[in-house]
């Protein structure tokens, strides 16, 4: 079971690295945003692996389901064309980046497998698991725990943060309104 | 270790069973819709394939499979092909955490199991998990509209995305009343709580939240009277104009699966799920097949809501787009927030 967890961790880590490279490298803004969506989904799976299921679900619900949809929406509405952006790096460079990532991933996986293989033969080898956090963190996964923490222990910081968000929203509205008046 | 002791095998069996049910269910739901449409319009509906058109979904499926696969020019090929897949995947994934039966205690141990229920996984944050998955279904529509390189498709996709974002707010808020009254996100416990307190529909905040829920659900699933994304008369059919053959079938299947999911979810959240009426409860006490009678009630409730979608579709005309947005933001959202307060007060008094 732990083996599967470790393999999944490296798989998601690989996807996350690859997609975050995609976000900054891709010429097309819509595709860049989609890479960010992939990144968020694999980040959520990472939270899930660490036993924090609630956080994983919230990550998908808020970032992927709401914020990124709005991003995509705006990008599609203003219809940005590919030609507006210059191509970052040649085709060769891009291929190099992708192949480097894949090589790194393969090396990681073979290292992982070989370590486990060694462990099976020689149990005295001083190998420690890198991701053992799941045992301790399991309890934070529950919605009740998180809400008790937020609304009892950290009530004041929580409210202050929501106030900051409110200020941000009002600020955005004010800025947008000002520009509109000028245009008219 | 025998094969049946492995938990993974059981999960796989459940998944296969549910998948079969989903696909046939979606197929026969289309038949139900066409028969219903025929009934509402005083005509027969499909009646050629088999008696009462019972083989019509099968014939439709074969037709979609045998059609020529066409690919329009200048489409973004990866996204164009990914979009129907995303729609179906999110629709099917929703079924993973819906409990279709309560825990059934078997009289004898069958293959080393004494308790069975038909639910693939039971996430800690049950309802939130469902909403997170269903919020992903926007991507199927958005990508389909954008990648097909067609103005009508893009307009349809943009329309439906705006609509879904607006109504998702009131949809998620409407659930809070139910969650407050149960104190749990787990659907299983929400249903169990209703055996104690009665249907949530019959409480004051519960009724309000059901009202908001059912209106937002019609908008979320892009059904008439809110089907502006597909409006045949103005947008051809919106986001799936360019899709043909099996890719189109996937979109249709996803839509009908979503409808079935929502109908069963409504039955679970507001209508007591598999709880039986009080006069049957004592009779079924202690019988091992007692829960199965409850499941029968649950399926009947679910099918009633499935019929409700058809009923409304063929009875009401379409809204105008600005009216739709007005209803969403100016009426439903404040009402949903009011409903949260109301359920708080209700709980306090109780």
Can you tell me the overall shape of chain A?
A: flat
Oligomer: heterodimer
Largest sheet of chain B: 2 strands, antiparallel
Task: Give me the strand/helix succession of chain A.
Answer: HHHHHHH
What does it look like?
With about 180 residues, chain A is mainly α. Chain A has helices at about 1-25, 30-50, 55-75, 90-120, 135, 145-155, 155-184. Chain A has a domain at about 1-85: NADH-ubiquinone/plastoquinone oxidoreductase chain 6, subunit NuoJ (Four Helix Bundle (Hemerythrin (Met), subunit A), Up-down Bundle). Chain A is about 80% helix and about 0% strand. The longest helix of chain A is centred in the middle third of the chain and has 31 residues, at about 90-120. Chain B has about 350 residues and is mainly alpha-helical. Chain B has one domain (about 5-350). Chain B contains 13 helices and two strands, in the order H-H-H-E-E-H-H-H-H-H-H-H-H-H-H. In chain B, strand 1 (about 105-110) and strand 2 (about 115) form a beta hairpin. In chain B, helix 5 runs antiparallel to helix 6, helix 6 packs antiparallel against helix 8 and helix 10 (about 245-270) packs across helix 12 (about 290-315). The longest helix of chain B is centred in the first third of the chain and has 34 residues, at about 5-40. The interface between A and B is medium-sized, with 21 and 24 residues.
């Amino acid at each position: 079971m732990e083996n599967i967890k470790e393999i999944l961790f490296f798989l998601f880590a690989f996807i996350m690295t690859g997609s975050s490279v995609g976000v900054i490298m891709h010429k097309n803004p819509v595709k860049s945003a989609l890479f960010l969506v992939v990144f968020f989904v694999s980040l959520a799976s990472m939270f899930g692996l660490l036993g924090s299921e609630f956080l994983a679900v919230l990550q998908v619900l808020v970032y992927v389901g709401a914020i990124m949809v709005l991003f995509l929406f705006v990008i599609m509405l203003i219809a940005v064309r590919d030609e507006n952006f210059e191509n970052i790096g040649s085709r060769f460079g891009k291929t190099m980046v992708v192949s480097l990532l894949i090589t790194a991933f393969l090396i990681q996986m073979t290292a992982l497998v070989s370590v486990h293989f060694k462990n099976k033969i020689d149990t005295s080898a001083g190998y420690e698991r890198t991701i053992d956090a799941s045992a301790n963190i399991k309890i934070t996964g529950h919605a009740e725990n998180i809400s008790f923490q937020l609304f009892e222990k950290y009530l004041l910081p929580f409210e202050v943060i929501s106030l900051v968000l409110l200020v941000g929203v009002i600020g955005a509205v004010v800025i947008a309104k000002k520009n509109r008046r000028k245009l008219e | 270790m025998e094969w049946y002791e492995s938990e993974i095998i059981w999960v796989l069996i459940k998944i296969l069973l549910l998948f079969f049910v989903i696909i046939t269910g979606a197929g026969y739901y289309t038949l139900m819709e066409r028969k219903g449409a025929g009934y509402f319009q005083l005509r027969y509906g499909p009646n050629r394939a088999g008696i009462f058109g019972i083989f019509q979904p099968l014939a439709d499926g074969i037709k979609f499979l045998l059609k020529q696969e066409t690919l329009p020019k200048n489409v973004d090929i990866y996204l164009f092909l990914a979009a129907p897949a995303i729609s179906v995947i999110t629709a099917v994934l929703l079924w993973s955490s819906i409990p279709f039966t309560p825990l059934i205690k078997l009289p004898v141990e069958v293959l080393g199991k004494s308790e069975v229920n038909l639910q693939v996984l039971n996430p800690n944050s049950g309802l939130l998990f469902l909403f997170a998955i269903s919020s992903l279904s926007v991507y199927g529509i958005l990508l389909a509209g954008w990648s097909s390189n067609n103005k009508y498709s893009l307009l349809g996709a943009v329309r439906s995305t705006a609509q879904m974002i607006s109504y998702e707010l009131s949809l998620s808020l409407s659930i809070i009343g139910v969650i407050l009254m149960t104190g749990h996100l787990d659907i299983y416990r929400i249903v169990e709580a209703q055996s104690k307190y009665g249907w949530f529909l019959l409480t004051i905040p519960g009724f309000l939240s059901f009202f908001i829920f059912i209106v937002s659900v019609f908008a979320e699933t892009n059904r008439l009277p809110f089907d502006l994304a597909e409006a045949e008369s103005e947008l051809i059919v919106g986001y799936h104009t360019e899709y043909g053959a099996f890719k189109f079938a996937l979109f249709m299947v996803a839509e009908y699966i979503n409808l079935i999911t929502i109908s069963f979810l409504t039955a679970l959240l507001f209508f007591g799920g598999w709880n039986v009426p009080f006069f049957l409860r004592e009779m079924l006490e202690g019988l091992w097949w007692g829960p199965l009678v409850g499941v029968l009630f649950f399926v009947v409730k679910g099918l009633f809501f499935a019929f409700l979608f058809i009923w409304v579709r063929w009875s009401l005309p379409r809204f105008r787009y600005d009216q739709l947005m007005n209803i969403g933001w100016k009426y439903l959202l404040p009402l949903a927030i009011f409903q949260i307060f109301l359920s708080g007060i209700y709980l306090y008094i109780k």
